[in-house]
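Sharing a chain and its predicted structure for anyone who wants a worked example. Both blocks are below, sequence first, tokens second.
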Amino acid sequence: MSDHDSALFTDDVKTTPYWWDAAPPETAMDPLPARADVVIVGSGFAGLNAAAELARHGKAVVVLDANALGSGGSTRTGGMISSGQKLVVGGAIKGIPSELFQRMIADSIASFAFIQHLVREEQLDADLFIGGRYFGAHTRKQLASLYNMGDILHRVTGVTVHKVDREHQASIIGSDFYHGGILVDEYGGVHPGKYNRALRELARKFGAQLFSHARVTSVEDHGKGKRVNTERGAIEADEVIFLTNGYTDRAPTPNLAKRIVPVKSYQIATEPLPADLLAKLIPGGRMITDSRRDLIYTRPSPDGTRLLFGSRPGIMDCDDITAARRIRQRMLAIWPELAPYRISHAWSGYVGMTWDKTAYAGEMDNARFAVGCNGNGVALMSWLGFRAAQKLLGTEPQPLSFERGNFRPIPMYNGKPWFVPLVSGWYRLQDKVDKLRD
């Protein structure tokens, strides 16, 4: 690194998630079994919740991951959890029939309740925190829009929403960057690394087998079941579920890969900060995001020592250190007092996006699937995995709202997201125009 970089980064800066310091991914290279009742592809929150529920009910379950267990998007996230927020604030409400939207909201609310109940019931070491999330208005005009979204959130999801003006937001965020915003009391977060590790332990407790570095290359019909071919051998199974989201592979799931777009999101973590400074930046330790199309998301680390800050660094993807330099500037625009403090971690991960910003589940490519967290996946993907298990067990209390037949392929898309820079550039341009008109 350059002399300039030495002032920006700690000497031992890591390009792996901060979350991995406490709960690293796991290598599990035991030989694969010849057979299982259910093979689950993906060791994220969805895959592990599916595995735990199926194994709990006596199924012989195998979980496969192409890389280390828990190394994908689930442990690269910001760890925030909410109920239905993305459906409303994210714009997915547009164009969805009212009855279906109500069912989606119900599932989203259920996903938020599910993750809290699971963590508490199973006493999972996940640093669950329900302390609120603040949505800051980037412009004065967007404040009115956020107030309206807050009304909708309260009406359709039942959460407690406080409308906050600029003069009274100091008790929530120590910055005048925003023009006010809305505070949702019930939202919160988890430590995604610890949560994934706890889910691995839970799935194994019920008898599931987990294997790393076993990339699936194809799924074939075999007798009355399936043959799952991997780089480490083949497994016969009655059922196969792909729960791979932003890490969906074109080789075994070519049709699914045309419908799910991996979008890279980047994060940084500061070195440890003085406790009084962090308390000033985010009183109450809440989650923070904003109204920009090219939004940021930030929070204190669960142990209250660092600030974590996520964003895209620009129109084009880049390496994590380059991204960190740019993201740091977005962070300093909100909190200039962080300038003397260095970055200790810089990492990235893929979010699974769909054409209409909603999740989907069903059958495709000779297997079942559930994908499409659209940047709101900690609770939702946990729920989708649990519900995928219920579907196979025949125990689902009602049909899942996200299981529907209109999961469209994206035009001119073959699994390589060539258009993401165009969309990202358009979002940034609109944000700049909004600010100039403010």
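Comments welcome. The mean pLDDT is 93.
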